[in-house]
Amino acid sequence: MREALWSELLKARRGLLPALTALAFTLITLVCGLFMFILAEPARARALGLLGDKAQLSGAAADWPGYLGLLAQAVAVGGLLVYSMIAIWVFGREFSDHTAKDLLALPTSRTTVVTAKFILTAAWAMALATAAAAAGLLLGALLALPAWSAQTATAGVVRILAAAALSAALTTPLALAASIGRGYLAAVGVLFVLAFAAQIIAALGLGAWFPYSVPGLYAGIAGPGHDPPGPISVLLVLTTGAAGGAATLAWWRNADHDR
């Protein structure tokens, strides 16, 4: 396992995706901070030509609870897309780069190889969320947002990390799609369908029963008047993640990789 993890880390370090995903989460944090600045200083924002109306549509309050809640929503929704792209890249690149058969020829079991890939994607996802939470705290301090307390900050950070964990758990079916499709294209298509379905089903009020809508709802994207998803919704997410992981392991163990 140690060698398999080291191999996956080397491949990730030598690729462009780590930098791109870090940039994506940096932009997420900066946009949330920009919204807070506009909401806190509407007159100054208008003088600078900033779009105050767009910030108003976020429904967030210009204080620490509102800011951390908005950041959790951005991490839940944006993170689902970014984390899915990470899983697609980690699994799909072996086929796009024609290294899958070489990888399987190594004296390392297929189960170990796939497990190492899942460990990498999970650690990558949580590292991005942790960095976003830390940067968000720093940016909120620079903006001098009101209603600060250690309890509020702790609850906000836990919410961000929990939303990120839910989104990360849902990437295993995308890893399966990249494996079955032997590359990126099919998995990206599945991602688009799932992201679209999550928005539509949530808008119909059935998001608590669709796993890919749950992270956003947990983060509070439906607004303060709506209850967060319950234990059954979280269980659906975990079950989907576990099923996707088990199916991916089974496919790698049993699929014919000669063609």
Q: Tell me the major beta sheet.
A: none
What is the β-strand count? 0
The number of distinct structural domains comes to 1
- The level of helicity is over 70%
Quickly count the helices. 12
Mean pLDDT, rounded to whole units? 85
Low-confidence stretches: none
Q: Give me the secondary-structure category.
A: mainly alpha
- Strand portion: under 5%
Q: Give the termini distance in whole angstroms.
A: 27 Å
Rounded to an integer in angstroms, the radius of gyration calculated over CA atoms is 20 Å
Order of helices and strands: HHHHHHHHHHHH
Tell me, what's the shape? globular
What's the gist of this structure?
The chain is mainly alpha-helical and 259 residues long. It is built from 12 helices and no strands. The chain has one domain.
Index terms:
mainly alpha; about 260 residues; globular
